[in-house]
Amino acid sequence: MTQSRDEFAIIQRYFCDLTGQDGVVAGIGDDAAVLAIDAVPQLVMACDTLVASTHFPQRASPAQIATRALCVNLSDMAAMGAKPKWFTLALTLPPELASQSWLQDFSRGLAQIADRYNVALVGGDTTAGPLSVTVTLLGEVPNGASLLRSGAAPGEHIYVSGTLGDGAAALDYLITGSDTGAEVNQRLEEHFYCPQPQIELGLGLRDFATACIDISDGLVADLGHICEASQLRAQINTEKLPIHPDLGQFPDSQVLQWALTGGDDYQLCFTIPENCTDDFAKWAQSMRIPVSAIGKLVALDAHQPVVEIDGRPAPVDKGGYNHFR
Amino acid sequence: MTQSRDEFAIIQRYFCDLTGQDGVVAGIGDDAAVLAIDAVPQLVMACDTLVASTHFPQRASPAQIATRALCVNLSDMAAMGAKPKWFTLALTLPPELASQSWLQDFSRGLAQIADRYNVALVGGDTTAGPLSVTVTLLGEVPNGASLLRSGAAPGEHIYVSGTLGDGAAALDYLITGSDTGAEVNQRLEEHFYCPQPQIELGLGLRDFATACIDISDGLVADLGHICEASQLRAQINTEKLPIHPDLGQFPDSQVLQWALTGGDDYQLCFTIPENCTDDFAKWAQSMRIPVSAIGKLVALDAHQPVVEIDGRPAPVDKGGYNHFR
Predict the structure, then answer these.
(1) Residue A41: its chain B contacts at CB < 8 A?
(2) Cα B102–Cα B108–Cα B110 angle in degrees, nearest 5
(3) Which of A111, A191, B148, B184 has a CA that sits 20 to 30 A from residue A175's CA?
(4) Mind listing the domains of chain A with CATH numbers?
(5) Could you read off the pLDDT of B137-190 as tens digits, one per residue?
(6) pTM of the predicted protein model
(7) For residue A211, what are the β-bridge partners?
(8) Closest-CA distance of chain B to residue A102, Å
């Protein structure tokens, strides 16, 4: 489909020179983008949609919507060990929002993240309709080096990056408006709209990890995907779960639930063989990337839960959508 | 972002084994797809969104929405001279539509087109929200062989594939419900929901054409893009415009307007140097692909319209969105 004049004008005006154009032979302005690749890598392709009132509140600023849309997609690249390169943007916008100021703010947010992670916007489509944003990202990975969910083995250690539960705490703050203090409020809001995709960690994990996933639906659910794909059982030790001091003001049981089953953390959960853990710890320290070993993988017997927490079956996760209405 | 359980179940159930998986190292079911490429081609990436009530009527069947979404995206690959390979699907669906029968019908339509054009669904995202479909397609093209809009030169011939005006006639039929006879009605509806992307022609045009675009906003608007990108003026001869006999029942002036400024034809418009036209004609004939020479390109002087029809400036095209409400 060719971009119609109105759409083309919007793309030209607000999005065209938004991002670095490394490897872009022809970007925005033709029927499709043409992209040059240097060697023969494998490509990694992922797409995610954010819908207003489901994935972000209606009151979110255009820049906040943009940063979140790109960050959650970049998180998928991190989880695959891929170097993100190019993305397309499908922006559906109600006519009443299609103002210069809205689009400027949105493109400012997009450019900020594209710049930080060196990804190029290479095409897209703007349409009239209920507000939603779909980003499709393309990345590269050396042949066979991508981090799948299916590569883990018994005896391996389970790690997570950063801290857990911040996504759920942020969601709680955004939905209930609970007052957690100005500084904490700001950090939680920042975490929600601008979660930090663990790109650098993902690239490094190619040398160490056997399986990897990003935590968007909560640790238990996402670690469960690794277990199912690798046919293993995970044993988590809750004392090892990394929790940010900011969450100290909430009841322990609440924080634990957030850390285990809350979504939107966008940290990586990954598995590392016993004989690599020392080298990995050194590497992570040298890169100043905080990581925590939280448990181990064991063989899966029939009728056992795939995730065990302190020796007990994990509670059934709720998963599903966030609803901001 | 990881797929949540509900989303994952939908993708697994309705979309997983939908398409051939040539070159797919890891498809649906991980954070992102991993794709293997054989040589060092250039990649072509395009995305398009269809929104209910804007790009298709609410009464459209799920299969019709799916075939249209994939076909209009494939048309972009044709216009670039690219071989389409892989696509992601972002499907936003109101909860009341998320039934087994809706999804089965949608996936049936998607599989039909994916199968016909040998493209693999490699990932996607399903979300709850107002009905819309975003397809992002990835294709390959040999280094430097893509058909851009900017390569045309003065003296070259302008061609279109197939017939023009069918898209606008189909739109007219779908919006007004005008009775054009059962057989014609069916062809128009088929044209709207299942426009034939000119992939084979696009691949062949790599050897002949200097510029190419697909006609989605109407000949004048889209040929205008070639003229602007190539800094040339197009002179069209309306007697040469290919019109399907089915449109004979409409007034000539109506048909001419549809052929010139109506959208949704999804034919290719392309330019060929004088010394290649004979070889091209032979090739097209051997492939049984109908093409028509409709005019020539000349140098552009300042203050001249970029498109001239029978020696007069082209009417300003209306472009923009289709609205089915």
Answers:
(1) 37
(2) 105
(3) A111
(4) 5-141 (3.30.1330.10), 157-313 (3.90.650.10)
(5) 998 888 888 898 888 999 999 999 999 999 999 998 988 887 788 889 899 999
(6) 0.87
(7) A271
(8) 20
